[in-house]
Every structure is written in structure tokens, then in C-alpha cells.
Amino acid sequence: MACPFFMPVQKLDGAWLHPSRLPLGGGWEGQCSAPGHEGAHPSQEELHEFCNLGYATKCSRLPIEREWDAVRLSVARDQGSRLLLWFVCETDHRPARHGTLEYDVDRREWISLHSDPRIQKMLECYLQSYLQRRIQSVPADSIASPNS
User: Fold this and answer.
1) How far apart are CA 38 and CA 128, in angstroms?
2) Which of 25, 32, 111, 126 could staple 40 via S-S, CB 3.0–4.6 A?
3) Straight-line distance from the first to the last Cα atom of the chain, in angstroms, rounded to the nearest whole number
4) 2: DSSP letter
């Protein structure tokens, strides 16, 4: 679950023991989009403790009144050339809004988009991490050689 006000920009390497377990499939640097703090660059500590993890109640930029506390993402179905992704926006550790979006891997384009640019950006980052892991998990002997 990532903070719903976090706008990831680029991968943050080497910061976590198990980065693939993070909500966005890895650690990310980015900006805050909380009202009154748009464009603020969180410190490394804030990125580790709040932005990448959600439920950041100790974050000084987190608005008291907010629609969601965290965003959870996952792949619902991987059909090779098509991916169906789930998103769940949580409030008080309960689903407040949820849905699915579809991505065409071959065309490298979204078939459907989320209306909130923050959630869409998180989905794109999660997708990038997922596809990178998927490529790395293909056994070398399953890739056809030019002579076969």
C-alpha cells in the first residue's frame, strides 16, 4: 500500500531488504501531492517510512481530512499479452474504492485508465516493476536460440 498522495517518479534502488514486497513492486522516489504540499520532495526517511508504505499518520503533510489512507495494487490476471490489474483504495484498513484496469503488453498501452492521475501513476510504476520481474523469471533455456 502506498500513500495516496505519493506521486512516484523514479525507482529508488538498494533501499529495502525485500523491494519486490513493497506496494509498488519496489522503492520509488517522487513528490508529494497532498493539498498545500504539491511538488514537495520527501526526505529519504519519509520515502522509507511513509510514501512507499501508506498509512502515514505521522507524516506532517498528510491531510487530516482525506478520502483514502493507502492504495493497494496487484495483478489479477496475467494472460501473457494482457494484464488485468486491481487497485484498492483503503480507509481505516478497509476498502473504500476498488476496481480493475487492463494493460496490453504487446502494444505497451493501457486499455483503460484510472481517473485519478496519482493512482494511474502508481499503477504504471507497479506495472513496470511487475514486468521487469516477469522478464527476469523466464528461464534461460526457455528462450529459443537462433539455431533452433
Assistant:
1) 24
2) 32
3) 44
4) B
- pTM (2 d.p.): 0.84
Provide the 3-class DSSP secondary structure of residue 19: helix
Residues β-bridged to residue 83: 78, 103
In our burial notation (b when 16+ CB lie closer than 10 A, e otherwise), range 96-106 reads eeeeebebeee
For the chain, the domains span 6-133
Task: Note the pLDDT tens digit of each residue in 7-27.
Answer: 999 988 766 777 778 888 888
User: pLDDT by residue (tens digit) across 50-102?
Assistant: 999 888 888 999 999 999 999 999 999 999 999 999 999 999 999 999 999 99
Residue position matching grid coordinates 538498494: 14
Q: What is the 3-state secondary structure (H, E, C) of 35-71?
A: CCCCCCCCCHHHHHHHHCCCCCCCCCCCCCCCCCCEE
Single-letter residue type at 132: Q
Distance of CA 101 to the CA centre of its chain: 13
- C-alpha 16/C-alpha 10 separation (Å) is 15
